[in-house]
Amino acid sequence: MDPDLYAQRLIAHYLKQHRLNDTLRAFEIEVNRKFDTDSIDESLTVLVKDYLEFQGLESSAEHHRVGSNGESEGVLPIKASAALNTTHSNNSVLTMEQQRLIEDRQISIDYWTVRCPEKKTKLDLFQKTLVIFSNVDHVTLDGEVRTVGLFSTSSRSVCIYDLENRQVLVRGENLGGRSPVKAMACIPGTAYVLICSMNGNLSISAVKKDANSGDYSISSIGKGVSLHRKLITSVAYRSFGLGSGYFCSLGWDCRLVVCKVANENTDSPELINVGSVVLPTQGTCVTVLRDDELELPVVLVGRVDSSFVHVFTVCKRKNNTGDGTDIQHNESIVELAKLSLNDSEFSSHVFHPMAITQSSRGVVSVATSHTPYLRVVTFALPSVREMLSKAPSVVDSCSKSDSSTLLCELRRMCQKGTDDRLNPNVPVMRNVIVSNFSGMTPQDRFSTPVLMSRPSGRSGIWVVGNDGLIRGFDLRIGKVVETIRAHEGRIKTVSAGYLTGEGHNEVIVSCGAVDLSLIHICRCRRYSLCRS
Questions:
Q1: Among 524, 497, 492, which Cα is nearest to 508's?
Q2: Are the CB atoms for 78 and 89 separated by under 8 Å?
Q3: Other CB atoms closer than 10 Å to residue 489's CB: what's the count?
């Protein structure tokens, strides 16, 4: 877009937002152009505020770089008592700002936990058919929780495989209709499985056991929902209580869609389409986390041509019914903030997130679009309370408000929502980056990298790129400390989880796009700590 035209649109949006209608009409006459300000995703006020805060960060960094005698100072020291178990203060790979953030938030990042021995086996489930999706999950059958691998193929077949007992539980065909299945997820505590097809249809299937033969079967139940008008690019699901949760998806239609899996007063879970948000560019990655204080979902979204991570939540909004007395409580999507992954310059178009995962409590890692090697940017996720305190319409006492007051503020923001578009007045939050390391994983502009968090109690993340290797990345020292040769050529799909048996052994399943092999890797309980 022409910079002058974009600047004029920002000015027009500012005038309209402040109800300076006469000035807006005069401005449009002066430049001989009628402006559509509805598609503006960033207001002039927010841009200026962000720029001034960015300049403040630069000044602060310069202040700490140069001492009173004019000489360059060393790395900003961290008090051991305040930053216990964090990266030590003489670690030159971290900037002073990053170490100050670690100190202020008392962020704890442990060394990589090495699990051994490792057992790798091939699974011959589909006879050299391309597996396009895999997921390690847990399903409840006959009152027993089982660790399963969920697999779907390009030929529209699905399989649920018992990873502990090494046996096929159930196979199914055409559960995604005429389209292959893009994603599958178990609804915790139940025998229900979410099935999302490539064309954007989401449905629920039930795994049932035949009383006579003892064999399991899978079939769709209830009515599905249509999430997207075009193909799906990324999905995420998180449970919020027994039999319920939130399913989020991104599609080629440049929309974020949030669907609730509800299990209230029904015999089986029900799908409720919460709503959608139109993104300025196509979304690349999405994940769903949980705000512990307010017990709300936190949806993180990355998109093309922006180094921002958009943060949303879902809350109830009050809608008056026809007679003005009864009130219905419907849920709606609320945008809270944009988190900057690029504090080195005042720009959001240098790179964009490609994959995202929660690496530890309150800490999120992102794989970037950098070539020839992706980078792993890790940031501290602000709480919903912190993000609300940055909103221009929120009272200054937000940091001292109780939970019920914050929820009321969220409902008020729902009422003032901008339909299905991004809120141009949402605040930009910088200075949240904990570390920025090279992932040492090769990729090009056509790559689709994967980041996988490890089971609870294990530090680090798995990084997957183009070369058939699964790399164990230590976020404390910023290095690849383990490498698993899984496939020849690019990996099409990979997932990590844990077994429910003693020790909660780590398990990884993956499929190669070239060799079409399906690999099951189990990493046993015995371990040591990597400190190199």
A1: 497
A2: yes
A3: 12
CA distances from 408 to 37, 365, 399, 411, 425 (A): 29, 31, 14, 5, 19
Local structure of residue 388 (DSSP, 8 states): H
Tokens 């402040």 correspond to 18
Phi and psi at 33, nearest 5°, equal -155, 140
Contacts of 231 (CB under 8 A, 6+ apart): 198, 199, 200, 251, 252
| DSSP secondary structure of 494-525 | EEEEE-SSTT--EEEEEEETTT--EEEEEE-S
Tens-place pLDDT, residues 469-502: 999 999 989 999 999 988 988 899 999 999 887 6
Tokens 């943060």 belong to which residue? 311
Number of separate helices (H) and strands (E) present in the chain: 6, 31
CA distances to 305, 326, 336 from 53, rounded to whole Å, are: 22, 45, 18
Q: Max alpha carbon distance in the chain (Å)?
A: 86
Locate tokens 């949760």: which residue?
245
Q: Round to whole Å and give the CA distance between 275 and 66.
A: 50
Whether 153 and 165 have beta carbons less than 8 Å apart is answered as: no
Question: Quick one: pLDDT band at residue 329, thresholds 50, 70, 90?
Answer: low
With beta carbons less than 8 A apart as the criterion, state whether 76 and 489 touch: no
Asked if residue 80 has pLDDT above 50, the reply is no
Q: How far is it, in rounded angstroms, from Cα 335 to Cα 380?
A: 18
Cis peptide bond N-terminal to 427, omega within 30: no
pLDDT at 420: 80
